[in-house]
Amino acid sequence: MKINRFGLLPLLPILVMLANPQTAGAVIYAFKVADPIALTTGDRHYQSIDYRLHMDPSKVNWISWSQFGSLQSYGGSSVIDGAFANNFGVDDYFKLRVTSSLGLETNTYTLDRNDAWGKAEGHQAIIYGDKSVAPDVVRQSLKGQIREFDEGGLIDECFTEEACYNFHFDFYNKYTPMRGHNEFWLLIDAVEGYIPGPCEPEPIIPEPGTIALVGLGICGLRLLRGRRRVRST
Question: Are residues 160 and 212 part of one domain?
């Protein structure tokens, strides 16, 4: 982009719970995926992030990414991000692939694409959910152009039943050497009483070489103890 707008935003808790005025009885859970990053050199692909969440899609209304840990106000409605100076999302787009602990995997999708002047193009933010319940997404370019997107979820094929879901994000820059993003959050609108959360830690399975080394060490200790007993007799 032509202007570096990657200032630090106010620090918020890792998890924020908010009532959703648009979906009666629903609660929005905000999970902080990444802190701000600003680079001036490097590869076109400048960052990769994996974020894991355990959830039941049947109890989730929609999922979106956002620069904030809450919805913003625009035109009397609650929206994703809102209209403010240079609000064009990430610089310049990211790709998303979702996998589940059930063995399902989505295609790789491109989101939040914007041109050299920050004009938003294509699908912006809503990852999962019907457009009738998902909030609109609002973007403002470097020239002050405001665009409002009425989106439904881009990904549905992986969200089938309760499981651990891994969100893999790859961030790309296309234009000037400046690249990065503000805070990066996942917003999950869930039915009342349901709380999505972190996945169980994955079990640590030693590599075969490590197991062999441990076995050799135990054998060596037994041999050493045997020699000491012989000498003492």
Answer: no
For residues 39 and 178, give the distance between their C-alpha atoms in angstroms, rounded to a whole number.
6
For residue 190 the two structure tokens come to 């869930």
In a domain, 115, yes or no: yes
Same domain, 158 and 219: no
Q: Residue 23 and residue 49: Cα distance in Å, rounded?
A: 30
Query: Does residue 212 share a domain with residue 175?
Result: no
Phi/psi-derived region of residue 61, left when phi > 0, alpha when psi is between -120 and 50, beta in every other case: alpha
Residue 123 has pLDDT above 80, yes or no: yes
Q: Report in angstroms the alpha-carbon separations of 130 from 29, 46, 153, 181, 224.
A: 18, 31, 6, 27, 68
For residue 229, the enclosing domain spans 206-233
Cα separation of 11 and 231, whole Å?
66
Record the pTM.
0.79
Distance of CA 50 to the CA centre of its chain: 7
Does residue 209 surpass a pLDDT of 80?
no
Which range scores top for mean pLDDT: 163-167, 177-181, 216-220?
163-167
Q: What are the structure tokens assigned to 20, written together?
A: 């959703």
Which residue is it, tokens 């990414």? 65
Pinpoint the alpha helices (H) of the chain: 208-232
% of the chain beyond a pLDDT of 70: 76
